[in-house]
Q: What sequence folds into this?
């Protein structure tokens, strides 16, 4: 570019040298991509993006997503140069315990990191979510501004590698981005033709540019990662195209300019070695004897980003204040969203139900809840991976999110709509939900059958790792799904989701517990939560209307006690659709001389978080006769029932039949709970 | 086509009526696609495919994969018409308990079903594996035959829906299929523009034909599912194109010819209703009063498939016998592969190691095993999702599987090669492995880091459901992975994989256990197995050389006893890299007056399968002081340690640092095991 100086060139070369040195110093890491992407990353952070190093959470900032998270130095060095708080000392701590520069960028662990990346494909899909969130946010706060004229308009920039391009989640997300016409999204594909197994030709022969054209993206090819002029022009073109996401295929040479290792797999994931690092330094006119050499004038030059950020921020603030003055209600909403505070009285709209033997499916109760609170909570939006009617996730008085051209006979769409349609793309849904949650104050939910949580599991794990307050609506949560058979019936999923640290797995027993569960997950803004809901009707249980409001929030509670306190005691622990079996069994046991307590435990994680006194008040340590009942594997219940306990569960795959037959044939019945309780009482006496 | 008669038309219409009736009779199901795909499915089964209804396992049969498994009637009705053993009575049992016609097609549950489908995308990806397996099989048994001239040549036909097309696993697999130039693969995409959320336009705007062109496929568009002439011609073209997989985009009208519901979501996943079914029958000149009407002459016509099959089979058998006579060694191999029997003496080549404190990483031992047994087991082939060097999965004296044009500086490829390169596509890898295993006698393995088992989980679950003998090589199996940090460190994966019914999760403690583990998983031809291996070095343990051969196969065994039998006793149970900590702790405990037994438990599933006597001999019921140690969540260990037990594990995400620091900071140490043992002994006395 015309304003490119020698100092810019020196800065870019400094990046390359720092990357080589940092990996050499650590002994492991990924130098090659950080070297070859140096001009690109520098161009973005120093010349393209609107950002303020002094405030990494400025809502109107452009987002930078390093989808190829293994090249974390690409980001860390920019954060250092631009003045986000990292210094050379931090680069020396790369990949070390308790450093600000872990192996992969970790959300909010390091200031300026927008999302945790490393598992390939996730970053690009997160970015699609962020670009969607930016549009939704604009729609909520400034819908009338002309295109490009809103203070909320900004761009999302992504650096992606061949691994990102190969992962299926990216394909799903990219197809969605095309459908959504996300003009605010710019993906730069670092096409260096090298992966860990060396030349990508061994596994990759597709025409990726054409593939992105097929998704409806604006596609450009830039031949050479050193060609800053062409790259800058391509980015300008991308910004000018406001009705399509942009894909810039950038042909780079990994490890450039390492004389022996560039353009080979050896530059990807290991230190270059002393000699090669020295050769890089010589080639770039750096002192081979020095390490982490940053000329003062280079740093002074790049740290001007701080002043530019301050100026941009001030200009924006003036416009923001003008907007705020003219739009007091929207300003109030913006303030609320920025803290994720829920509005006063919002929960008054939550429905409740009287005890009722016929009852209703908890998925249906969930749909009623969503529609009851939808008006009070405009930040709540979401949809399904093509199962909206089954998941009961449509907010009925709202339009769908999408360009008007995506409207169908069933759904009217507008760019600021609220109901999301992911298609049969569960994994991208999960990653997009993460991107939405990370972007700002809106609260996204996404739905599919519980079994297909397996398809989105990597994204769920990352939500938990990032403490992103995403809500999953997972319906058809057991063999109660019925006729669709073993491929669609979750057996191990409840346990395997509980296994993810930091994920709330919530399985309400009835309609009342469902309403309270929604309240509780909305109030937890520091963790993702999954609501596991029934396909089939379940009774509204006696006592739940009164006890669920406190009980569900505590994870587990005493729903009812049956029998004579002088009798033998047993505690029956159930979740979801099996709580009714515990109740039925308890009544029978009471008649047969065993006092039975029914504990409904919709969320093990919340129960674990209670103090010991409360926990002991629910499951008394003195009562060793215990039964857990859940239509899934027993794995997560052993620690609750103990040595004398029994578990009524299913340790094999399901089958295709009506659900009543399956419950009977697989022995998930009140009779089985009664028998197990008697065995457990006997165990305590053995 | 010229030879198409009114009887063919009547047969096609019979399919439509049967589909509508079967769903109506069941009360739920998917009528629409089975109706609109009637001409296509009929054309394939009656006019295109080489198959023998009398022998659904004829190795040279063309494969038919219904990737849109929800349209199971599409397959069941063809199996009925062609004479595979299903009758009208079976169609009346659709989706009922213990029927041959479950909601989704289940592998080998119903004769003629090649793979279990339903979770979308899996079938198409399985088919890619089958097409690869067909080429590999030809390479092993008949490499010198001219193209199209081998008795082993056959085609794989797939019916796929928009859901299949949207799922990322399909994108991954389709890109691989393009790279592999699978000329024996024909995918027909049922582009009916309707999904569960009605018009697909709400979520799908990509140019799918162009997308498949970008993958390097041969692409054709057929405008109209009723146009059998055009479809037949397209299939002929597809077969003529032998160096590219073929994609036929077939524009259909879902539910055709249901007058009110066709071309709507209402025809997708619910019964049409009495009136609409009657209208269909009227439109097709069937008696609206009758159900399941199949004219005798129609059935006689379609059952000619049996005779055609017999003839084709006989012609083939003659050529096969000729080939067998000329190729006795290959014939012997073919026989062996067909039963999955391992050759006599194959295990003699397995390496073993003397006890050695320095030891080696179990992933490295695994690589040594693979290369030691590779020559003896030509059926064993596989590769990695772009981590070959890290996973140690290359068979060094073999070439890579791929067209010669896929060769690189590092890997020489040929179409019959052995080392697979999946790119960064774990999910497709899993599904392709399933396809390979289902196709025939070869044994596939696939590798990635253990953490990324999450990316392939739906495929792993299906392998377990189908009892497909796939082998996963999952390395970097704990925080021992080190610097790459929490995104790459498995914490919950060991427990969540154990949660899948029917999957062997094998975590060997050292090099000797690794060799025996390979032997055991190769010998188990009725289940998938995952080998969980260390990145870091672990000692070759004292006693493992002698005890592992029997012990590993039994899942858990006594590695060593330490201390005085008169002292208090404790059992220390460890897996993988933590067994060494148990050994070290046991020595310390013995010195401090607690007799400690070290149980190595590489495979919980195999241990569970032992008789109670053996299990009690390893973990004596009388010894209640027990500690489990594993660098992951405790979930799967509670049932082994019991109320008095303690578990040394990790209930939170990992971090980026060298592994020694992580083990120390997270408290996975011999000292922690010692302390836990003392607590457990104290618990038994409390």
A:
């Amino acid at each position: 570019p015309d304003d490119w100086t020698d100092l810019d060139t020196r800065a870019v070369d400094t990046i390359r040298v720092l990357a080589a040195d940092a990996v050499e110093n650590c002994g492991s890491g990924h130098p090659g991509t950080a070297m070859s992407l140096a001009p690109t990353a520098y161009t973005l952070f120093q010349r393209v993006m609107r950002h303020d190093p002094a405030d990494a959470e400025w809502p109107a900032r452009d987002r930078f997503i390093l989808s190829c998270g293994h090249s974390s130095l690409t980001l860390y060095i920019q954060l250092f140069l631009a003045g986000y708080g990292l210094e050379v000392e931090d680069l020396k701590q790369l990949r070390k315990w308790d450093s600000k520069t872990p192996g992969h960028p970790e959300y909010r662990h390091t200031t300026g990191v927008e999302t945790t990346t490393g598992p390939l494909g996730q970053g690009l899909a997160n970015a699609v979510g962020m670009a969607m969130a930016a549009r939704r946010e604009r729609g909520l706060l400034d819908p009338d501004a002309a295109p490009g004229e809103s203070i909320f308009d900004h761009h999302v920039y992504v650096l992606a590698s061949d691994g990102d391009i190969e992962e299926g989640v990216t394909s799903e997300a990219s197809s969605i981005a095309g459908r959504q016409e996300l003009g605010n999204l710019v993906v730069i594909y670092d096409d260096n033709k090298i992966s860990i197994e060396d030349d990508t030709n061994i596994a990759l022969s597709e025409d990726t540019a054409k593939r992105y054209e097929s998704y409806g993206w604006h596609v450009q090819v830039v031949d050479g990662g050193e060609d800053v002029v062409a790259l800058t022009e391509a980015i300008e073109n991308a910004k000018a195209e406001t009705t399509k996401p942009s894909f810039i295929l950038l042909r780079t040479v990994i490890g450039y300019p390492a004389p022996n290792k560039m353009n080979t797999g050896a530059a990807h994931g290991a230190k270059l070695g002393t000699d090669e690092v020295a050769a890089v330094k010589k080639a770039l006119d750096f002192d081979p004897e020095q390490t982490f050499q940053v000329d003062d004038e280079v740093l002074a030059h790049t740290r001007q980003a701080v002043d530019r950020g301050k100026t941009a921020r001030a200009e924006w603030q003036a416009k923001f204040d003008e907007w705020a003055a003219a739009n007091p209600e929207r300003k109030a909403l913006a303030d609320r969203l920025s803290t994720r505070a829920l509005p006063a009285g919002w929960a008054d709209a939550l429905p409740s139900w009287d005890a009722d033997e016929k009852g209703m499916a908890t998925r249906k109760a969930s749909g009623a809840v969503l529609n009851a609170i939808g008006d009070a909570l405009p930040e709540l939006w979401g949809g399904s991976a093509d199962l909206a009617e089954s998941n009961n996730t449509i907010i009925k008085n709202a339009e769908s999110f999408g360009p008007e051209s995506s409207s169908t006979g069933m759904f009217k769409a507008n760019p600021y709509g609220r109901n999301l349609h992911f298609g049969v793309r569960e994994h991208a849904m999960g990653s997009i939900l993460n991107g939405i949650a990370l972007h700002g104050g809106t609260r996204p939910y996404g739905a599919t059958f519980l079994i297909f949580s397996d398809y989105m599991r990597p994204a769920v794990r990352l939500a938990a790792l990032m403490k992103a307050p995403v809500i999953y609506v997972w319906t058809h949560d057991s063999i109660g799904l019925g006729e669709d058979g073993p491929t669609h019936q979750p057996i191990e999923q409840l346990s395997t989701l509980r296994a993810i640290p930091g994920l709330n797995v919530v399985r309400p027993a009835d309609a009342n517990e469902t309403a309270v569960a929604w309240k509780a997950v909305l109030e937890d803004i520091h963790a993702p939560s999954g609501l596991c809901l029934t396909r089939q009707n379940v009774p509204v249980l006696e006592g739940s209307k009164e006890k669920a409001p406190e009980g569900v929030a505590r994870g587990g509670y005493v729903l009812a006690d049956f029998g004579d306190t002088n009798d033998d005691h047993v505690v029956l622990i159930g979740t979801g659709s099996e709580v009714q079996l515990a109740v039925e069994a308890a009544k029978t046991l009471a008649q047969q001389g065993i006092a039975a307590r029914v504990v409904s435990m919709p969320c093990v994680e919340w129960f674990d978080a209670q103090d010991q006194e409360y926990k002991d008040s629910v499951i008394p340590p003195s009562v060793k006769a215990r039964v857990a009942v859940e239509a899934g594997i027993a794995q997560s219940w052993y620690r609750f029932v103990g040595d004398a306990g029994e578990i009524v569960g299913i340790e094999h795959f399901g089958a295709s039949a009506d659900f009543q037959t399956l419950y009977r044939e697989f022995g998930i019945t009140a009779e089985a709970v009664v028998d197990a309780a008697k065995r457990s009482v006997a165990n305590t006496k053995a």
Notes: The first strand of chain A starts at residue 63 and ends at 66. The first helix of chain A runs from residue 6 to 26. Residues 6-310 of chain A form a domain with the Rossmann fold fold (CATH 3.40.50.970).
